[in-house]
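Before the break, one more example. Copy the sequence into your notebook; we will annotate it together after we see the structure.
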Amino acid sequence: MKRILYIIAAVLAFSSLCGCKSKTSSETEKAKETVDSFFAALKDADFKTAADFVSGEEQEQMRNTEWHDDFEREFMETYLSKISSKYISGEIEKDKTEGSLMYEFESMNMGEYVNKVGLNNPMLEGGAPQIKDVDVDGINMVELEKSVFLKKEGDKWLIANINDVMNAIMEFKAGE
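Here is what the structure looks like once it is written out:
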């Protein structure tokens, strides 16, 4: 009889642990999907879609992003096409409405990129290279770990520290 009680207690303990773990993982997975979807849109320079994953007034600012000229558009599209993000760690607990996940971001060395294409390319004399002619694959990549802070609005997770995240991936690493 004792043996049966121990088995039942073990099964109940195991199932309750599994239940808690899956709910925590579920919230974490939803938050990771938000970050992954944001970066997929950003990599395509699709700010309108990327804005869907951002909270606060930054959402509207991102949605209304417009390029000043073709050079700026091509400059940013090329730069953003090379970014990547990778989840490192962090869990969002069940019933929480905010949390942080640690990510590793990789992007081109902005200083090197600017030097190769010229920050104000259309104004340079002597025929600065066109962005499409620059070997961007030869530009060193910069890695940085950054915590992404997320808030839950309704049933959707949104990035709450988007300015910090964008500053991290656009970090100017001149001279490295």
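Helices lie at 2-43, 47-50, 57-63, 70-80, 110-117, 162-169. Confidence is low (pLDDT under 50) at residues 9-17, 19-24. Try to locate both features in your own notes.
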